[in-house]
Amino acid sequence: MDEKRNRDVWVFAEQRNGELHDVSLELLGKARDLADKTGSKVIAVLIGYHVRKLAQTLVNHGADVVFVADDTRLENYRLLPYTHVFESLIKEHGPDVVLIGATAMGVELAPRVAARIRTGLSAHCIDLKLDENGNLLQVVPGWGGGVVATIACPDHRPQMSTVMPGAMKALPEEEREGRIEEMYVDLPDSNMGPEILGIERVVAGEQPLEKAEVVVAGGWGVGSEENWSLLEELARLLGGAVGATRPPVDEGWAREGQMVGQSGKTIRPTLYIGVGISGVMHHVVGMDQSKNIISINSNPDADIFEASDVIVAEDFMKILPPLIRELKSRVKSWRSINISEEK
Amino acid sequence: MNRIIVCVKPVPDPKHWDKVSMDPETKTLKREGIPNIMNPLDKHALEAALALRESHGGEVVLLSMAPPFAKTTIREGLAMGADRAVLLSDRVFAGSDSLATAEILAAGCRWIGGFDIVLCGNLSIDGSTAQICSQLAEMLDLPNVMHVTGMEESGEDNLIITQKIENGYVKLFSGFPVVLSVRKEVNKPRYIPFTGILAAESKEITMLSNKDLCVDPERIGLKGSPTKMAGLEVRKFERKKEKLEGTVDDIVEKLVERIYQCGVIEC
Ligand SMILES: Cc1cc2nc3c(=O)[nH]c(=O)nc-3n(C[C@H](O)[C@H](O)[C@H](O)COP(=O)(O)OP(=O)(O)OC[C@H]3O[C@@H](n4cnc5c(N)ncnc54)[C@H](O)[C@@H]3O)c2cc1C
Ligand SMILES: Cc1cc2nc3c(=O)[nH]c(=O)nc-3n(C[C@H](O)[C@H](O)[C@H](O)COP(=O)(O)OP(=O)(O)OC[C@H]3O[C@@H](n4cnc5c(N)ncnc54)[C@H](O)[C@@H]3O)c2cc1C
After folding, report:
1. From the CB of A145, is ligand 1 less than 6 Å away?
2. How do residues A240-273 score in pLDDT, each as one tens digit?
3. Which of A17, A133, A305, B227 could form a disulfide with B97 if both were Cys (CB 3.0 to 4.6 A apart)?
């Protein structure tokens, strides 16, 4: 290994349309923690066009330095040009660690960059630690979350990881000082890969699941779209959001973006209430970092109970209606939460 | 359309995953008695290839890196309609991480040659790194697109590709050759017809070892893998597991209390 290399921790600052992805701020929080342990710097890499304005936000969330690669040809994310820019920067500066969000963009870009550099990449990390030598230990789920592997990359640099959105915590934003450096962008003219014909946005209205403090999640056991509205009501009362396992998404009771688990979102709310969910690993891996877990399932041997703090082994139809009634009568602030009550 | 290569990975059947355990000595997974299936998304990749062949001709070739027992899984793909298969099997491939796997699969693609598209699943259900599509493309020095939910041929040698991203879709225009990985929304894989099962028996599975591929031994297997497994555990949970009992009223009363204790609401 090259002795001259520094121990800098890099974060890929993902943006689309001039908007930073939350995961980038979460990664800065983790990067700060790692860099403070080894006494090194956190560097954010921001690629795009007219994105310089985002640099201060990155500093305020923990970056010491922001490298900005700003060029009209980088306006929309395209795999090959982004790979080229990212790889050139890594080759030039030799960071020790590179963290990238496991988003649609990140899981496509990171492996391509890692392969070009010929270094190791760990996928969908849920935790990152340092061993006694300061090497990165990367905790990744496999087998639908039933297996957790710790990946190391002892002989190659940088150590690269994609990290699940929601798995790390962003530092609160505060005025900080950092250096913002414009990078020279040198792109080959040829082979930019597929051309973008158009980008269609589907706007999701309500509060994102990953940010909700309370998540009421439902499974196949909820039984119908009509019953599903009970979960929505409970979530509204608690100021939370509704999550789902896969079957309700397949049935159309819930949307794809509400799915929690290996192929959906990773959440860690203060309170997770699971209703009619069996507790298959595919789902559990996405919610088991919740602070408090309450599960309602009519099967007293349901697997989800193994992953729960509070167990209610009852038909949810017996529990939810009186629970909602009780909460309505006791939650003082419920009127301020926008509920339409029957007159 | 020339040739389409579909990468298929045999994976342990999730129906039997409760049987998996750890060998405390070797720190590897014990997976005896767990049958293999084709990675579910690879069926979608194969379906996409078959649909393209039906409208534009060409040949569909399956490519897999796996121990020889994978033939059973590969036959399934042949029964679905693929024309032939190439199985890369060699002890020296064992222990490959995604980078080394991509290196070997790339050598397999070059050995097959003459392809317009390489199709993969977006991710496998066991290793599930979702790293193969981009890394394979990088090794082949070809462009790639992941998260594909739609593709149609445009003219003789171009594709219009729909890619799913957060809150939306990107439409891309690509020439050949290109490497793609699909999500499950891309299509519904066909059922295997009985005649397909019979036909598969006579289709060719070419077995290749590294003697045929000649990949640099420094770049494959455990040795050629920059990532190392530093630990492995089968998950267990530590939670309070407090069971609420009594009448419905008792339970609801305690439930409200527990919710308050979480500090998420005021009263
Ligand atoms: C590769 C792959 C990826 C996957 N990714 C995900 C993922 O990201 N997220 C995900 O959620 N799933 C995922 N799945 C699906 C997953 O394997 C399970 O099928 C799914 O999580 C099960 O959902 P469930 O618990 O709602 O349904 P079930 O397993 O059918 O459980 C329903 C539960 O409801 C209970 N119940 C029934 N009636 C009542 C009642 N009246 N009151 C109370 N309880 C009741 C039952 O006792 C049962 O435990 C994935 C699968 C695969 C193969
Ligand atoms: C728990 C666990 C964690 C792991 N973590 C990492 C990690 O962080 N980094 C790392 O580099 N490796 C990791 N590995 C090893 C990695 O899974 C293997 O290297 C594997 O060969 C790469 O495949 P995948 O299943 O992850 O591929 P994916 O990228 O998830 O597979 C996508 C598609 O690629 C194709 N494909 C994949 N493998 C083959 C094959 N053998 N033959 C034909 N087509 C194939 C299929 O079309 C498949 O649908 C891990 C393995 C386990 C069990």
Report:
1. no
2. 999 999 999 999 999 989 999 988 999 989 899 9
3. B227
For atom 49 of ligand 1, the residue with the nearest CA is: A278
Beta strands in chain A (DSSP E): 9-13, 15-16, 19-20, 42-48, 65-70, 97-101, 121-125, 127-130, 136-142, 147-152, 159-163, 179-182, 195-201, 214-218, 241-244, 271-275, 292-296, 310-312
User: A with B: how many residue pairs have Cβ under 8 Å apart?
Assistant: 251
d(CA B93, CA B101): 8
CA distance A161 to A242: 30
User: What does the angle CA A327 – CA A331 – CA A333 come to, to the nearest 5 degrees?
Assistant: 145
Q: Is residue B24 part of a domain?
A: yes
C-beta atoms surrounding A140 within 10 Å: 25
Counted domains in chain B? 1
Rounded CA-CA distance B18/B40 in Å is 19
Ligand 2 neighbourhood includes A159 CB (under 6 angstroms): no
Q: Which pLDDT score is estimated for A2?
A: 46
Which domains are delineated in chain A?
Answer: 9-182 (3.40.50.620), 209-330 (3.40.50.1220)
Residue A154: both structure tokens together? 């002892």
Q: Are strands A121-125 and B242-243 parallel, antiparallel or unpaired?
A: unpaired
Residue B243 amino acid letter:
K
Q: Searching chain A, which residue's CA lies closest to the CA of residue B234?
A: A147
CB B92 within 8 Å of CB B69:
no
* Any atom of ligand 2 within 6 Å of the Cβ of B128: yes
pLDDT band, very low/low/confident/very high, at B17 (cuts 50, 70, 90): confident
Contact A331 B266 (CB under 8 A): yes
Rounded to 5°, angle at Cα A60 from A28 and A182: 85
> What is the Cα gyration radius of chain A?
22
Question: Highest mean pLDDT range out of A163-167, A210-214, B215-219, B257-261?
Answer: B215-219
**What are the backbone dihedrals phi and psi of residue A7, each rounded to the nearest 5 degrees, phi first?**
-110, 20
The CATH number of the domain holding residue B15 is 3.40.50.620
d(CA A178, CA A156): 29
Does the residue B233 lie in any domain?
A: no
Residue B207 domain flag: yes
Residues of B in contact with A238 (CB under 8 A): 259, 264-265
Are A143 and B20 in contact by the 8 Å Cβ rule? The answer is yes
Closest CA to ligand 1's atom 50: A282
Pick out chain A residues at pLDDT < 70: 1-5, 203-207, 331-343
In this structure, which ligand is nearest to the CA of B49? 2
> Given an 8 Å threshold on Cβ–Cβ distance, is A292 in contact with B241?
no
Residue numbers in A near B174 (CB within 8 A): 193-195
pLDDT at A333: 43
**Distance from C-alpha of B83 to C-alpha of B69, rounded to nearest angstrom:** 20
pLDDT value of position A308: 95
Q: Ligand 2, closest atom to CA B130?
A: 29
Query: Which residues constitute the domain of residue B54?
Result: 3-219
| Helical (H) or strand (E) element with B161 | strand B158-165
Is residue B236 very low, low, confident or very high in pLDDT (cuts 50, 70, 90)?
Answer: low
